[in-house]
Amino acid sequence: MSTTAAAQLPGPVGDPDRLLTLARTLGGVGTEVAGTTLARSGSAAALPTSWVGPAAAAAQAELGALAGHVRVLGDGLAPMARIVLGYAGALSHARQTVAGLRTEWDAAARKHRERRTRVVDSGALDPAAGLAEAAAADRDWAQEKAHLMARHTRVMTELADAGRLAAAAIHVSTGPAFGDPGQARDRILATLPLTEDTAAGVAATVTVARWLQGHPGSAGSWTVAELASLGDLTLADRHIAQAFLAALGPVELRLLTGRLLDLTAAQTATAGPGRTSERQGAEAALLALATAYSSALSPAGRPDSAAEARAAAWRSAWSAAVKRADATPSRASEVLPLRDIHAQAALLRIGRAAGLSAPADDVLMALIPAVMRAETLDQVSAWHDDARTDAVAALLDRCRDRPESAMAILGTPLGSYAFLSYLVVDRPATVTRGPSAPVAYVADAMADILPCAPIALSSQVLAAVAQHVGVVQATPGPELSIAQSLAPWRALVAQLLLDHPDATQTVLLAPASSAGLDTPGWSEAGLPQLRLPNERAAARLWGLVGLPADSVLPWQPGHNDEFTAALSAACGEDLLAVIRTLPTNPDAADAALRRAGVLIGFTTTGAADVLAHVAQGQDAANSSVHERVDPVLEAVKIPARFKVGVPGALAALGLHLLTDAASSRLDQLAPTNAGQAAETAAREARIGLAESTRALAWDLVSRAGAWAPADDPRAWITLHRAPDFLDQTGHPRPWSSLTTAQRDAFVRWAQDVPSYTRLPSVLEQAIATGRSRAHDLVKS
Amino acid sequence: MLIRVAPDDLTGTATGLLADRDRLLAAAAALRGAHGDAVHTGDSAALLDVLTQALETATVAALTLAEAAGVLGSGLASAGAAYASTDSAVALALGGVR
């Protein structure tokens, strides 16, 4: 082949043999991938069915996705091999064709040269003919070259087309699977959360290790200036944060936090410009640590997600490390400068103030045993009085933020509300110092938590309060009245009584579960004088409503102020004031009256149940009815001062009717029939209550003046020349003070006034509802 | 949550996954080596581009999938070896004990 031919008809670039090698490689790799267990099983890949649970589900999902990807990879390589093979064939064919064209070129060129030679040789005989022949030879040669070049172009075009077709085919067969190379890894990992999380963790560990190389020595010795570079780490990233905390460990974290807290203590605030700068640096470092603490220990996703499973595993390992580090000192007198629990409490509080996410519940729950231990041991520690490291406050604040978590947190460590019991029952006696030591602090926190928390938590709070009262009463030493020991909780209990009468009554009347209530101390307090089947429950009831401990029987005026306050609070808003809004806001008046009615029906029925037990207990003892039961009946009477208020009148009404009827019955019956008498009295009281309800509602409307101007009673009396039933203010006098004629006139007027016709039925229905709920509880 | 883990089953699955990881790594190595052959496609720039990109993508994919098979296989092997008594412990094994 001549260089001219090669130059004029360039061959296609490429090596078919190398492409054949490539095709074989792709085919081999495809076969290899397709032969993996994952590719063979595909999306049907399954783990042993004997393994179940969230982790198993996460692993199964990962396995299925992985197997699917592997199959896609294998499936994509085989067609790619075929395409490359096809192009290699096209290339080889083009190379051969071009080689043929070059041969033809050379032949034509040789032929042309030979013709020209012959023309030259014959040119002397006939120059003109020679010139013509030469021109013809050149023309033929030019035509031949053009023909060959056209054929060459066609070959090269076909090869280019084959290349484009191959490219398109490869793109179609493999392109959509994993995207371009820059995206492939991320796209795959997005469907493989376990792997993605692991990879992120590994990368984070490397990043943190590199940072730590620039900060040798103990974390506790790092200067504030060095700590400024914490900003180089993305501590808001969970993996970075976990790697950072893991590298430090609880002990180094405590040392570092403690030193930073020292630098930011209040007494260092006015120590000069240099100190101010250092303090600001320390505060920034503390915020960075709190950020890491929050990021590392917050939930990582849905509870059933793989990421959360792994995050939970990490948190569990961290909490175990903290527990080991915060082991109880060998001597009870030993006081650590700063415990791990205090360091973590500080980070919790800083994080909360900065609006950072709270650590997961399991982390907070794991801290609780250390809190309970440290509080009693560290009474003399300087940190104990530092609000910044107040672990109880930190935990309660997080419960306030997340009331749905309160049950889990307050239920720890034994899952039986041990922490709540500690806070309410044990702690007040053992912890006397510290920012959150006062019981009122816990009561305030509970008041914030309970409205948003499940009702079951409210019940547990009530039970703990009742137990607290019992323990206080059973403890030898300076005697506190039940009212005194209950004082911090009274408002909370009253609120619970209003919001959750069912749950409240359940707790008040439930058999006691605590051994603390069944102690000799109760006998000394006099409560076991009530020989009831559920005497401890009754003791709870009377203890909670504030009967004096040293003389539960009989009623002693002046000792029940808290009781009065509690019931007033239970009735909550000023019902009368609400009813005054009746013309403009009937719904609010109805709702207020309905709430009060439910409370009346519920509490009176519950009280009747207790009284029946009282009487039955006396029957069993065959003792004097009047010696035992009458004081009880006396005790539940309401102070006169309390009856003045409208809410109090509502609440007292049922009890008065009940006790009056019971006393009347008991006067006439033998002692051994006291139980039956009490039940009869309760029935009569209910009848009396029903009859009185309408009059009570009428009186409320009368006092509120809740009628339209068109219904003015003065005008009606004048028009109908009826007996005057109004007082000096123009409002109807109370029903009980009216004469028969006045009552008739009042009824005739009121029957056309909407407030008088509707509100009694609202109250009656509400009382019936409350009674029904109480009955349901008794039955259950 | 209590679980009923059959260690042999888990270990068998783990072994299979780790073997697959090795095969995928070998595949990735082969694919990476194939880049040298791909440049011999010649004048077809379009084919060279797409082929090169496909090979790179496949290489990355094979490496990533090998990594995933290693993570999952190691986790299952650890779980099977430890014969965890609770699911959370297995999760811990899957997450890697730190």
The tally of helices of chain B reads 4
Number of structural units classed as domains of chain A: 4
3D shape of chain A? elongated
The amount of helix of chain A comes to: over 70%
Which of globular, elongated, flat, extended, rod-shaped describes the shape of chain B?
Answer: rod-shaped
Portion in beta strands of chain B: under 5%
The tally of structural domains of chain B comes to: 1
Rg on CA atoms of chain A, Å: 46 Å
Topology:
The complex is a heterodimer of chains A (780) and B (98).
Chain A: H1 3-8, H2 16-34, H3 37-41, H4 54-122, H5 127-178, H6 181-189, H7 193-213, H8 224-227, H9 238-263, H10 273-297, H11 306-325, H12 340-353, H13 361-377, H14 391-401, H15 403-411, H16 418-430, H17 439-449, H18 455-474, H19 482-486, H20 490-499, H21 501-509, H22 520-525, H23 535-545, H24 561-571, H25 575-580, H26 586-621, H27 625-635, H28 640-644, H29 646-668, H30 674-704, H31 713-720, H32 740-750, H33 754-779
Chain B: H1 7-33, H2 35-38, H3 45-82, H4 87-95
Helix pairs in contact in B: 1-3, 3-4
